[in-house]
Design goal:
- By secondary structure, the chain is α/β, with parallel strands linked by helices.
- The chain has two domains: 280 residues, Alpha-Beta Barrel (TIM Barrel); 90 residues, no CATH class.
- The chain is built from 15 helices and ten strands.
- The strands form two sheets. It has an eight-stranded parallel beta barrel, surrounded by five helices. It has a two-stranded antiparallel sheet with strand order 1-2.
- Helix 12 runs antiparallel to helix 13.
- The longest helix has 16 residues.
- The protein is globular.
Length: 379
């Protein structure tokens, strides 16, 4: 296991154990006995950074983590959890939620406490409600040792949040070779390093999609002289920037845990050459070339008179085909249907096609999506 200095927090393992994807039983509940064994095996294998949050596994993640960290394991780890900002309506709520989380975890304090899933609008609300005052008091009374934020929004919002508060001690961002320009992106990681704010990476495998890749992506990897698994290429990319201190992985079975422990013997800042970084960008190009709908999400087609959420439908189609995970489309599309934005509502009025800068055959593409024909359709 590789380690590095994480600001004033201490020396952390490059691999962090993310607690959003714990092993589950057939009914969807956490397999607690197995999860505890896996967490402790990970710590015994060198992991000393554990990341959980209030909503993971319907609130069970924090309880399972607390149980796993008994018997001396708490003293071996840096423990992170997150304030569920969407549940906060007052300054008092922040204290109430933190106290509830400490009770779930059965610990007197956490090493790192984050504002969870910030975007620009949510951050402004949290500021108005007094999050900075809350942080100061939680640090002073010892319930929290360090503070930071996790992030999902534009690069511009990331920059604003990062520069707005001098007391940030870490930021957690989504980063992988498909998302190197998405949300905070490479530039955001560089900015955080300039500000001396350590970076923790989430979604390095994009929800597992970069661990089992389509055949054409695998063929490109197989043609290389160095033989690395898809997961190793992804982890090496995510862990390459010098500002990155921890790369989180949600490991839901023992095989993934052991493979990751092995890979992270070789993941460190600068572990990719410039040529290897360029190869990762070639992998991205191969993935993107698989997209069947050349929608740029410009949103000129919105609002649809019938409420059809055209960009979201096309994004779901592209993700399913690009990542060769067609089953994911059903979940995404079902959610759109529940919100009355699915393609079945299209009446073929043509308003969207007249507005589309890309000249897409939107009506036909929507029909195919609704009929689950997730191939072809390029324009």
């Amino acid at each position: 296991m590789q380690y590095n200095q994480f600001g004033t927090l201490g020396k952390t393992s490059r691999l962090g154990f993310g607690m959003m994807r714990l092993p589950c039983l057939e009914d969807g509940s956490v397999d607690e006995e197995r999860a505890v064994r896996m967490i402790r095996r990970g710590i015994d294998g060198g992991i000393n950074y554990v990341d959980t949050a209030y909503p993971y596994h319907g609130g069970m993640s924090e309880k399972v983590v607390g149980r796993a960290l008994k018997d001396g394991y708490r003293e071996k780890t840096f423990l992170t959890t997150k304030l569920p900002c969407w549940k906060v309506e007052s300054r008092r709520d922040m204290d109430t939620l933190l106290d509830e989380q400490l009770k779930r975890l059965d610990v007197p304090c956490v090493d790192m406490y984050l504002l969870h899933a910030l975007n620009g609008e949510r951050y402004e609300k949290m500021k108005e409600l007094g999050c900075q005052d809350f942080f100061e008091h939680a640090l002073k009374d010892g319930r929290v040792r360090h503070v930071g934020f996790s992030f999902h929004d534009s690069h511009e919002s990331f920059r604003k949040i990062l520069l707005d508060y001098d007391a940030w001690e870490m930021c957690q961002v989504q980063y992988n070779y498909l998302d190197d320009e998405y949300q905070a992106g490479r530039e955001g990681i560089r900015l955080a390093e300039e500000r001396k704010v350590p970076v923790v990476i989430m979604e390095p495998l994009r929800g597992g999609a970069l661990a089992k890749v389509p055949s054409d992506v695998q063929a490109a990897m197989d043609a290389r002289a160095e033989k690395r698994s898809p997961a190793e290429w992804a982890f090496r990319f995510a862990g390459n920037p010098t500002g990155v201190k921890v790369v989180l992985s949600g490991m839901s079975d023992e095989k993934a845990l052991e493979e990751n422990l092995d890979i992270f013997d070789r993941v460190f800042p600068g572990n990719l050459t410039a040529e290897e970084d360029a190869f990762c960008m070639e992998l991205k190009r191969i993935f993107l070339a698989r997209r069947p709908v050349m929608c740029t999400a410009c949103r000129y087609c919105q609002p649809c008179p019938q409420g059809v959420r055209i960009p979201e439908i096309f994004a779901a189609v592209n993700r399913a085909v690009m990542l060769d995970r067609r089953e994911d489309f059903e979940r995404s599309y079902a959610a759109l249907a529940r919100e009355e934005g699915d393609a079945s509502r299209c009446v073929g009025c043509g308003t969207c096609e007249a507005a589309c800068p890309q000249g897409l055959d939107i009506i036909e593409l929507l029909r195919k999506a609704d009929e689950r024909v997730l191939t072809g359709g390029r324009a």
